[in-house]
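W.,

You were right to be curious about this one. When I first looked at the sequence I had no strong expectations either way, so I just let the prediction run and decided to look at it fresh. Below is the sequence, 388 residues in total, followed by the output.
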Amino acid sequence: MPGTVALVVAAGRGSRFGATHPKQYAPLAGRPVLRHALETFRRHPGIDAIQAVIHPDDRAMYAAAAEGLGLPDAVAGGATRQESVQNGLLSLAPHAPTRVLIHDGARPLIGPAVIDRVLDALGQAPGAIAALPVIDTLKRGGADGRITATLERTGLWRAQTPQGFNYTAILAAHDAARGQNLTDDAAVAEQAGLTVRLVEGAPENFKVTTQEDLVRAEHWLRGETLGETRVGQGFDVHRFGPGSQVMLCGIAVPHDAGLLGHSDADVGLHALTDAILGALGAGDIGSHFPPSDPQWRGADSGQFVRHAADLVRSQGGALVHADVTLICERPKVGAYREAMVARVAALLDIGLKRVSVKATTTEELGFTGRREGIAAQAVATIRLPSAG
């Protein structure tokens, strides 16, 4: 029977994050955001067991994030965070733990010292949460954007997680609050009349909500080591041949010709692959996917981009931005640009705002002006640990 369980809640959708998957599975220094929190609790001597709560659609991503940690199957979350926590608490009932620490899976930088402080405080009260005192002056604003009041900040704190409780007490409190939508578990406990102590949190223990938060987490995690930004460029050309469509940045665009090439001849993705490899100093697309190798005949060029992006992450780096320019007279690609941006963002596993796809002509000059083919150039920006 575990004495203390860490209940890691990771069932949210993270709509503000702006990626193709929930923020808790976004790569952070080569590992999913959620993995960082799970590993910290797994290593802590005061934690006897870990139970994750996830969205039912995320089981495959969770399995990859928790691989090798020896954790039990995740519990399915509910429609709200409060329901997800309650589902997790109910799943622990057969084990009857003494204490439970509830933590947001999107807070990857939780440190052992904060966990220690919450556990210590639980020896003095049925509830304890990590928090930071408010140090900024607080203003209340009206609907028109004008200040309506200045608030007294003395005694105000910004709540973090983990939030620790006597298991039986918080389970009963959640049962009594069923159907409400309280903002955190301390609010559930307070409503039930439980005493909740405040302990010092940590500035780095912030919640990843946006892409900018993810970059900030990388800086915190790497400290001074993640200080190298590199830019790579790529250029590619394919001539027209028989066909009724061309592949451009992963999207099939109708045309009165196709593009000739050993793979699917996606000139935009080929240029982007070379840009990423160039930033890494890792050769070019031909050295990784030789055109003489028959296995790449007709291949989806998306796998080339994924391979280059995986190389960045395998070195503890992160993709910051990708910019692709397609150069042709025809076909016109404006109607497909948003789909191309979405496809590239999905391949790179980054937010839409970190991808640009543009098109231009050469004013009927040169081989593109004569409509003999399409060219593309790309620029990729990556961040890597500083080279030794």
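Here's what jumped out at me. The chain has a mean pLDDT of 91. And, maybe more interesting for your project: The chain has two domains: 4-207, 227-384.

Coffee later to discuss?

I.
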